[in-house]
């Protein structure tokens, strides 16, 4: 029986996620990959290119998911624990080019199948698109690692659509997707995958948890420094409670919304760091500093995030018109919310 195991044999696909978006993080990714001999590290599109470039410099011996010498390469095949594994990268595409893309994908997949026993598809498409593809690609030997935020992809646990295993990736660099292939001679390959959280459940190499923790420690230091440097400019926007006396309904709706909880979410994940606060905290976005003592209703994605600073407006009792600040898509981008649909989302946040 050939088997990919987690015991020191490269088996893991890492969702590098946000870990890839900052050049200072690349060493962390590369070190983790080298230490754990990760089979593949999935990061955002642009980041993947630069990570591959660094890997290609040969500083570390690791198995990059795709040929570092060829940035256009979208597939990789190699041996892991006695199993020939192929990996195919799939990026989102415009709806116009959909059929062409699918056709190209099918032929790339057929080519890869000749060189591999099992094929994993590292997809950054939406859940719905992945399922549609799974149906079209058909069963056997294809594993799909969905590369979107968990809120947007249904499976927290692997699911099977028409014989194709849909494998979740999760939580931006804090979780790895382990894939396993087993076969008893004469039987077809049996694929399974599961999520392992780095830090608690994942034990093969404690160094990895350490590396990631170290990265976030540096982030904390950066945040502390930035926060100490910058005085909190209280006048930069009017926080939500300032709107409450005149817009009570809007306030109540907002207070119960995910936007109002955005900083709490980070606190719960111990990710009160600049790279995350940039979207999750209005005071940080505006002032570049974080105040841990700020009341919850003064923080998070605020009224002012969307409606502008509102200071004059509040002072003039509505006589001064509001300006527009950020559009939804500036935060709900392809990386942070692949399935975002404005119409639907507006219904969810409706407070007018
Ligand atoms: C003292 C009362 C008062 C306060 C405080 C106040 N508003 Fe208003 N706001 C009004 C009134 C009155 C109108 C209606 C103006 C009109 O119809 O011309 C209005 C209209 C609006 C509108 C729609 C019209 C426009 O200008 O775009 C928005 C959005 C809005 N307020 C947001 C806010 C936000 C956000 C805050 C808090 C930061 C806030 N308001 C604080 C009184 C207030
Ligand atoms: C400054 C960044 C930012 C902007 C601009 C923004 N959002 Fe959000 N939004 C977030 C964050 C961060 C969360 C997640 C908060 C959490 O759960 O901690 C979120 C969550 C949501 C959710 C809940 C998502 C879910 O699956 O539970 C909806 C719906 C939503 N936003 C709609 C909108 C709409 C509509 C707009 C534009 C009118 C918008 N957002 C603009 C940052 C933003
Ligand atoms: C570009 C803006 C942006 C940045 C930067 C950002 N987020 Fe978010 N985040 C969002 C939006 C938009 C949502 C809501 C969409 C969703 O639920 O997937 C969200 C939702 C979340 C959620 C709740 C849903 C989930 O995926 O579990 C968590 C947790 C989260 N973010 C953590 C983080 C962490 C940790 C970081 C930093 C590493 C970060 N975010 C950086 C925009 C951002
Ligand atoms: C995620 C972005 C977002 C947040 C956060 C948000 N709003 Fe809005 N708000 C909108 C959008 C979008 C509309 C729809 C009208 C428009 O396009 O301006 C709207 C509409 C309104 C209106 C009615 C405007 C009109 O022309 O009738 C008021 C008043 C308002 N918001 C107040 C608030 C207050 C007060 C808060 C905070 C307690 C808040 N909003 C938080 C995006 C947001």
What's the quick description here?
The chain is of the alpha/beta class and 352 residues long. It has 12 helices and 11 strands.
Structure characterization notes:
It is a single chain. This protein is of the alpha/beta class and 352 residues long. The chain has 2 domains: 211 residues, Purple Acid Phosphatase, chain A, domain 2, CATH 3.60.21; 117 residues, Flavocytochrome C3, Chain A, domain 2 (Orthogonal Bundle), CATH 1.10.1130. 35% of the residues lie in helices and 18% in strands. α3 links the parallel β5 and β6. α1 packs antiparallel against α5. The N and C termini lie far apart (62 Å). The N terminus is likely disordered. One heme C binds next to α6 and α10.
Characteristics of this structure?
alpha/beta, 11 strands, Purple Acid Phosphatase, chain A, domain 2, 5-stranded mixed beta sheet, binds heme C, 6-stranded mixed beta sheet
Shape assignment:
elongated
Cofactors, ions and other ligands in the entry: heme C
- CATH arch. level architecture of the largest domain: 4-Layer Sandwich
Helix content: 25-40%
Mean pLDDT, to the nearest integer, reads 70
Give me the Rg, rounded. Answer: 23 Å
Low-confidence segments: 1-10, 44-48, 55-69, 148-155, 199-205
Structural class: alpha/beta
* Text of the CATH class of the largest domain: Alpha Beta
Number of structural units classed as domains: 2
- In the sheet with the most strands, the strands line up as 4-5-6-7-9-8
The number of helical elements comes to 12
The largest sheet is:
6 strands, mixed
Number of strands: 11
- CATH topology label of the largest domain: Purple Acid Phosphatase, chain A, domain 2
Distance between the termini: 62 Å
């Amino acid at each position: 029986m050939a088997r990919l195991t987690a015991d020191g044999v490269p088996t893991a696909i890492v969702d590098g996620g946000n870990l890839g978006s900052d050049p200072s993080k690349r060493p962390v990714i590369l070190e983790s990959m080298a230490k754990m001999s990760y089979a593949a590290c999935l990061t955002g599109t642009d980041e993947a290119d630069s990570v591959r470039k660094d890997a290609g410099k040969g500083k570390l011996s690791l198995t990059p998911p795709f040929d570092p010498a060829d940035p256009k390469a979208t597939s990789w095949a190699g041996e892991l624990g006695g199993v020939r594994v192929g990996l195919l990268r799939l990026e989102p595409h415009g709806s116009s080019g959909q059929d062409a893309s699918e056709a190209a994908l099918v032929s790339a997949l057929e080519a890869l199948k000749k060189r591999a026993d099992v094929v994993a598809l590292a997809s950054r498409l939406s859940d719905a698109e992945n399922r549609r593809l799974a149906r079209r690609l058909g069963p056997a030997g294809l594993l799909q690692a969905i590369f979107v935020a968990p809120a947007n992809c249904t499976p927290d646990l692997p699911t099977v659509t028409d014989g194709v295993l849909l494998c979740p990736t999760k939580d931006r660099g804090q979780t790895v997707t382990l894939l396993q292939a087993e076969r008893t001679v004469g039987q077809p390959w049996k694929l399974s995958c599961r999520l392992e959280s780095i830090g608690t459940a994942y034990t093969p190499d404690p160094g990895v948890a350490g590396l990631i923790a170290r990265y976030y420690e540096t982030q904390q230091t950066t945040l502390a420094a930035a926060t100490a440097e910058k005085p909190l400019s209280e006048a930069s926007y009017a926080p939500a409670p300032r709107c409450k006396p005149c817009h009570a309904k809007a306030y109540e709706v907002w207070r119960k919304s995910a936007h109002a909880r955005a900083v709490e979410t980070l606190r719960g994940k111990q990710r009160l760091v600049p790279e995350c606060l940039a979207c999750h905290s209005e005071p940080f976005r505006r002032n570049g500093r974080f105040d841990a003592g700020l009341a919850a209703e003064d923080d998070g994605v605020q009224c002012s995030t969307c409606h502008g600073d509102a200071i004059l407006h509040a002072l003039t009792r509505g006589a001064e018109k509001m300006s527009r600040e950020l559009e939804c898509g500036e935060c709900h981008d392809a990386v942070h919310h692949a399935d975002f649909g404005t119409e639907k989302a507006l219904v969810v946040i409706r407070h007018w």
